[in-house]
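User: Please run a holo structure prediction.
Assistant: Happy to. Please share the sequence and the ligand.
User: Here you go; the ligand is adenosine-5'-diphosphate.
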Amino acid sequence: MVGSHKVKKVASDAVAFLEVLDTAGVVVDATNQVVDQSSKAKDMGLVEYDKVISPELVELMTKARVTRQSVTEELVFAKNSRSPKLYISARATLLSAELVILLIEDRTEAKRLDETRRDFVENISHELKTPISAISLLSEALQVAIDDPEQVKKFSKNLHRESKRLGSLVTKIIQLSRIQAGDLQGEIEVFDLGQIVDEAVELNQFLADSKGVKITSDTPSEIYVQGDAGLISMAIKNLIENAVLYSENNSNVGVGLSEVEGIAEVAVIDKGIGIPLDQQERIFERFYRVDPSRSRETGGTGLGLSIVKHAANNHGGEVTLFSRPNLGSTFTLRIPIHQEQED
Ligand code: ADP
């Protein structure tokens, strides 16, 4: 009895320590019966009827007891077949002659982040390779064609286009990685969204003129939102740029701003090629393009909409899409209106 009391005290002291560290941990006795567990272990659902439910974890604890050493393993844990899989790092170690403590670290989020980062780096390397090798080939061709003014003109024009593409790609990669890190670039301020929309239209005017596309905008002033004006401006510029790029020459693009139930809505409407239904979710992913060869022709990076989505999310807003192939697309960016604070 005294022994059992002592065992319980050792276990509860250890668990109290785990509570301070906010760690998931379970203490078991010589028969692998759970003596105590931390709140985080309870949240993860590691124990049922005084037993650790995962056979792999039980095996790990037995191994620690038999070898009298600490053992660590990376495992996948799911409470039941319907629960999400957790990627865990489990460590079992002897706490006393009878007790083994099992410490669990949930690495699911870290693993997901690692994978996202690895994907991003792989995609970036792949995307950078295309303009870099084009620039290298074109500069070689220029050397060979040095005596032919027509060829020189053609190659140098292509060289300029590819280097611009490379520049735009690098700028967008930097912007996107900053936004993803939650690092809003500019100052957080209250600004007039109408003004930002007008600026974004202006920034696309040259491109629109080159295609004979007419941009019509209706932007009432005094719709105020709070956030990073530079980022929102970039997002709206990207939407208008796409509307122009994915429209036929001499068509129309509309840009509207309105207030709907406390939300500012910027709608960018085109009558262009549209987007197939089954791709409408994917186009917001980094580097995703419906038609890579067309996007490459237009100097696309596949990053524009990803920037729009992150910019919207960072401002507590969203971006939605309504589109039908060959009829056109409407992208709507929604951001909460700034509420005046009372003194
Ligand atoms: P890109 O730089 O390739 O335009 P985005 O991220 O801006 O990259 O867009 C992703 C893809 O979504 C584009 O490659 C294109 O296929 C499609 N897309 C975006 N906007 C439009 C639009 N207004 N009309 C038709 N397709 C569009």
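The first strand starts at residue 24 and ends at 28.
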